[in-house]
Design goal:
Cytochrome p450; two-stranded antiparallel ribbon; heme; heme binding; metal-binding; microsome
Length: about 400
C-alpha cells in the first residue's frame, strides 16, 4: 500500500471520526426530547454572520407557551435557554444554590482583572460579594451623587460649546465621554477629562476593553468551551495593556490616598476601608481591588451611555412623553431651590419609568449566564438539567 493511499485512508478515517463526534454531540437535545434549534456544522447555533442577539432570541421565543426551555448548541456544548418566567425565577432565586456558578472564564494568575464579581464562582464569589455589599448602601451612593452632579455640570458646558460650533453632534460619543468621567471620578477619584479631551487615556482604554478583543474568535471559543485548557495555555480574556493600565491606576491611587491620608467616599476609598479591618480574612488584595474597580468602570460607562442614547432617541420620537418628563424635572427642581439633589432624584418617578422602559426595549445586557453546579430536576417535568 503506497503512501498516498495510506494518507487518503487516514483522512477518511479522521473525517469519519469528526463526523461521528459532531453527530453524537448534536443529538444531545433530540435524545432527551427537548425542543431545540437545529445545529449546523461546526458552530452549532452560532453564526459567523453574528446577528444581533435580539434576532437570535426571536427564533427561540417562538416556542414560548409550549415549552419552559429551548436547547441550543454553542459549538458542541449544549446550552439551556429558559423562556418560562417561573423557570427563570427558580434559576435566579428559588433554586439559586444549584445555579450560582457564572460559567465565565476566570484566570487570576495571567489575567487578574478577570476575577471580578460578575465572573467569579462559589466561595470566591461569596467572599467578594460579602466584602463589597456594604459599599453599595444608599448612604454611600448619596456621597457619590455630588461627584456625578459635578461632572454633569461640566457636561452641560461641553454640550453648550459644541452646539455653538457644530450643527450635528455624535450623541453616543458625547455621552460615552460623560459616563467615562463619572465612573473615573466615582471609582478612581481621577479627573479623566474625557469631555474636554475625547482622546484621554481612560476613554481610550475603556474603548479597548469593550471593543478590541485580545484574541481571535477561534481562541475565544476555546476559552469558553475549555476554560481549564485555556488557563494551562495562559490565555487572557483581556488585553495585557488594558490590564496593566488599570492595575497601575489602582496601585498609584491607593498609594496616594494612603500616603496623604485622604478620605473621599468614592469607590476606591471604600475598598481601602475594607482593608482597615484587623481580620486578614476580611481584607482584599490589590489585584482584587483592581478587578472590582475595573468591573465598576467597564459595566458603567458603555452601558449607561447606550441607555441614555436610546432614551434620548425615544424621547425625540415621543415628544408628548418628553414634555411630561420635562415638566416633572422642572417641578422637582423648583421644590429643591433649583438644585439637583439626591432626594430630588428619588422624586422623579416618571423619569425613572422612562429609563426602565428604555432598558426593556434596549437591554444593555441581553442575557445572564449561569452554570449548573449539580444535576437539577425541573419541577413538574422528567427533564434533568445536568451539571455543567
Amino acid at each position: 500500500m503506497d503512501l498516498l493511499t495510506i494518507g487518503v485512508l487516514a483522512i477518511i478515517a479522521l473525517a469519519t471520526l469528526i463526523y461521528l463526534y459532531f453527530k453524537k454531540r448534536f443529538s444531545y437535545w433530540e435524545n432527551r426530547g427537548v425542543v431545540h434549534l437545529k445545529p449546523s456544522f461546526p458552530l452549532g447555533n452560532l453564526s459567523l454572520k453574528q446577528p444581533h442577539f435580539t434576532e437570535f432570541m426571536i427564533d427561540i421565543y417562538k416556542y414560548k407557551g409550549g415549552t419552559p426551555l429551548v436547547g441550543i448548541y454553542f459549538v458542541t456544548k449544549p446550552i439551556v435557554i429558559p423562556i418560562e418566567l417561573d423557570l427563570i425565577q427558580n434559576i435566579l432565586v428559588k433554586d439559586f444554590s444549584s445555579f450560582h456558578a457564572r460559567g465565565m472564564y476566570v484566570n487570576e494568575v495571567d489575567d487578574p482583572l478577570s476575577a471580578h464579581m460578575f465572573s467569579l464562582d462559589g466561595e470566591k464569589w461569596k467572599s467578594i460579594r460579602t466584602k463589597l455589599s456594604p459599599t453599595f448602601t444608599s448612604g454611600k451612593m448619596k456621597y457619590m451623587f455630588l461627584t456625578v452632579v459635578a461632572v454633569a455640570e461640566r457636561f452641560l458646558e461641553t454640550l453648550g460649546d459644541s452646539v455653538k460650533l457644530e450643527s450635528q453632534l455624535e450623541v453616543t460619543d458625547l455621552l460615552g465621554r460623560f459616563t467615562t468621567d463619572v465612573i473615573g471620578s466615582c471609582t478612581f477619584g481621577i479627573e479623566c477629562n474625557s469631555l474636554k479631551d475625547p482622546n484621554s487615556e481612560f476613554r481610550q482604554y475603556g474603548k479597548k476593553a469593550s471593543s478590541e478583543p485580545p484574541m481571535p474568535l477561534i481562541m475565544h471559543m476555546l476559552v469558553l468551551l475549555y476554560p481549564d485548557l485555556a488557563r494551562k495555555l495562559h490565555l487572557r480574556a483581556l488585553r495585557k495593556d488594558v490590564t496593566d493600565f488599570f492595575l497601575d491606576t489602582v496601585r498609584s491611587t491607593v498609594n496616594y490616598l494612603k500616603e496623604n491620608n485622604i478620605q473621599r467616599n468614592d469607590f476606591m476609598d471604600l475598598l481601602i476601608q475594607i482593608n482597615n479591618n484587623p481580620n486578614e480574612a476580611d481584607k482584599i488584595s490589590l489585584e482584587e481591588m483592581a478587578a472590582q474597580a475595573f468591573l465598576f468602570f467597564i459595566a458603567g460607562f458603555e452601558t449607561s451611555s447606550s441607555v441614555m442614547t436610546f432614551c434620548l432617541y425615544e424621547l425625540s420620537l415621543n415628544q408628548d412623553i418628553q414634555e411630561k418628563a420635562r415638566e416633572e424635572i422642572t417641578q422637582v427642581l423648583i421644590d429643591h431651590d433649583g438644585k439637583l439633589t439626591y432626594e430630588g432624584m428619588q422624586q422623579m418617578t416618571y423619569l425613572e419609568k422612562i429609563v426602565n422602559e428604555t432598558l426593556r426595549k434596549y437591554p444593555s445586557l441581553p442575557f445572564l449566564i449561569r452554570s449548573t453546579v449539580r444535576d437539577y430536576a425541573m419541577p413538574d417535568s422528567n427533564l434533568v438539567i445536568e451539571k455543567g
